[in-house]
C-alpha cells in the first residue's frame, strides 16, 4: 500500500527566496508522481507530472525531481512570489495509469511574505 | 472548453440526512473519480466510475454511493450523514485511455451540523 508523506507541513518565506518542498513515498514502483496546487477552499490545479522514466520536469519557475530509489520527489520554486502562497500536494496513482486512484500526501502550506 | 464543474458549491445538512452532489466531467473525458478532503488533510479516494459502473472503490462505507450517467456526468450520494462527513468533496475526470492526468473540479463544501 502506497503511503505519501510531505514535509514540512507549513512553510513561511520572504518574497524572492528559492525554496524546496519534499514528498516521500513508500512504494518505489510508482507509475508517475504529480504535484498539485490548492488555493484555500478550492479545487486542485495540476502543476507538474513526472513519469517513472523521467528524473525531472520544469515549468516556468517550478522544477520537480523524482528519485524512485530513495522514494523521494522535490518541488523547487525559484524566486518565490506572494501569489505562490497556497497548499502544495504530491500524489501518485495506485496502478499503471494516470487515471488510477491517486494517493495524496497531506500537503505543505506555503506562505510567501511580501 | 469547459473544465470539470461541480454543484452545489456549498451545502449545509444535519446529521442523519441524505445529500447528493453532482459533477460534470471535462469535455471529452469518460471517467469520473470522487475524493473527500477533510480540513488540513490530503484528498482521500472514494470511488471511480467508468461506463456507468463503479470501477474502483476506496475505504469508505456503503453510505457512500454513486452513479454515472450516459453523458458521463456523475452523482455522489451520502446517506445517514455524520458530523465526520463534513469535508470538501472533489470530483476529477480523465480519459480512460492515455497518460493525461486527472482534472479536478472546484469542489463542494459540505457541512454537517
Features:
heterodimer; A: 114 residues; mainly beta; B: 113 residues; 4-stranded antiparallel β-sheet
Structural commentary:
The complex is a heterodimer of chains A (114) and B (113). The N and C termini of chain A lie far apart (41 Å). Chain A has strands at residues 4-7, 10-14, 19-25, 32-38, 44-51, 56-59, 62-67, 72-77, 86-93, 102-104, 108-113. Chain A has 114 residues and is mainly β. With 113 residues, chain B is mainly β. Chain B has no helices and 11 strands. In chain B, strands 2, 4, 5, 6, 9, 10 and 11 form a 7-stranded mixed β-sheet that branches. The A-B interface holds A 4, 34, 36, 41-46, 49, 51, 89, 91, 94, 97-107 and B 4, 31, 33, 35, 40-45, 48, 56, 58, 88, 90, 92, 94-96, 98-107, 109.
In brief:
The complex is a heterodimer of chains A (114) and B (113). Chain A has 114 residues and is mostly beta strands.
Number of helices of chain B: 0
Please, how many helices of chain A? 0
Distance linking N and C termini of chain B:
37 Å
Which residue ranges of chain B are poorly predicted, with pLDDT under 50 across at least 5 consecutive positions? Answer: none
- Rg of chain B: 13 Å
**SSE pattern of chain B:** EEEEEEEEEEE
- Going by helix content, strand content and strand pairing, the class of chain A is mainly beta
The coarse silhouette of chain A is globular
Please give the structural blueprint.
The complex is a heterodimer of chains A (114) and B (113).
Chain A lengths: L3 E4 L2 E5 L4 E7 L6 E7 L5 E8 L4 E4 L2 E6 L4 E6 L8 E8 L8 E3 L3 E6 L1
Parallel strand pairs in A: 2-11
Antiparallel strand pairs in A: 1-3, 3-8, 4-5, 4-9, 6-7, 7-8, 9-10, 9-11
Chain B lengths: L4 E3 L2 E4 L5 E6 L6 E7 L6 E7 L2 E5 L6 E5 L5 E5 L8 E8 L8 E2 L3 E5 L1
Parallel strand pairs in B: 2-11
Antiparallel strand pairs in B: 1-3, 3-8, 4-5, 4-9, 5-6, 7-8, 9-10, 9-11
Amino acid at each position: 500500500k502506497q503511503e505519501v508523506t510531505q514535509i514540512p507541513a507549513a512553510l513561511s518565506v520572504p518574497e524572492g527566496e528559492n525554496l524546496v518542498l519534499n514528498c516521500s513515498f513508500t512504494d518505489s514502483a510508482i507509475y508517475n508522481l504529480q504535484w498539485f496546487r490548492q488555493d484555500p477552499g478550492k479545487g486542485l490545479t495540476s502543476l507538474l507530472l513526472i513519469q517513472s522514466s523521467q528524473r525531472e520536469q520544469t515549468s516556468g519557475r517550478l522544477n520537480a525531481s523524482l528519485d524512485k530509489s530513495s522514494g523521494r520527489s522535490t518541488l523547487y520554486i525559484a524566486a518565490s512570489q506572494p501569489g505562490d502562497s497556497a497548499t502544495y500536494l504530491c500524489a501518485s496513482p495506485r496502478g499503471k495509469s494516470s487515471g488510477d486512484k491517486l494517493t495524496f500526501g497531506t500537503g505543505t502550506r506555503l506562505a510567501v511574505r511580501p | 472548453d469547459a473544465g470539470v464543474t461541480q454543484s452545489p458549491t456549498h451545502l449545509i445538512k444535519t446529521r442523519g440526512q441524505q445529500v447528493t452532489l453532482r459533477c460534470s466531467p471535462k469535455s471529452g473525458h469518460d471517467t469520473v473519480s470522487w475524493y473527500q478532503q477533510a480540513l488540513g488533510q490530503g484528498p482521500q479516494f472514494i470511488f471511480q466510475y467508468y461506463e456507468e459502473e463503479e470501477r474502483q472503490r476506496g475505504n469508505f462505507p456503503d453510505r457512500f454511493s454513486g452513479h454515472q450517467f450516459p453523458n458521463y456526468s456523475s452523482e455522489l450520494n451520502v446517506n445517514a450523514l455524520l458530523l465526520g462527513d463534513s469535508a470538501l468533496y472533489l470530483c476529477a475526470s480523465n480519459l480512460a485511455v492515455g497518460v493525461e492526468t486527472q482534472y479536478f473540479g472546484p469542489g463542494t463544501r459540505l457541512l454537517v451540523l
